[in-house]
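A quick word before the example. In earlier lectures we treated sequence and structure as two separate objects. From today on, think of them as two lines of the same record. Here is UPF0225 protein SAMN05518682_1323 written that way.
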Amino acid sequence: MTGNPLDDGARCPCLSGDTYGSCCGRYHAGLRPGPDGTAPGPHAPTAEALMRSRYSAFAVGDADYLLATWHAAARPADLELDDDVEWRRLDVVRTEAGGPFDTTGVVEFVAHHRSRTDPADRGRLHEVSRFVREGDRWSYVDGAVQG
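And the structure line, produced from the sequence above:
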């Protein structure tokens, strides 16, 4: 894992109301290889859960998780996160499909951020993201940034 993981008892960055350990943290930990080299899970059961866990991975700086949950056909070779960006709030606008029995899903969200060095420098990312499920795992395919 890269970045600065949260304590399992801390509030989850995705703002679900759960603790990090019982929310996104369990998915982050589930993709760390076990002694046999496989990732034991648990894995996000829905497209929205994966999107929330990816937002939380950005918030804690877990580039490994982001790469592992990116669909192989679209995954970049590496990912460098900006340490100056502090992710502050996630608003899920809507979801289409993406349930446990679907193979595709769409999640629209707005992620709010600010600069760590200049807190007055604030912004937001409004994106419509596409996800695909293969077997028991959801993957991020791509996203269209909205105006």
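Notice the following. The CA atoms of residues 29 and 41 lie 8 Å apart. We will return to this example when we discuss secondary structure assignment.
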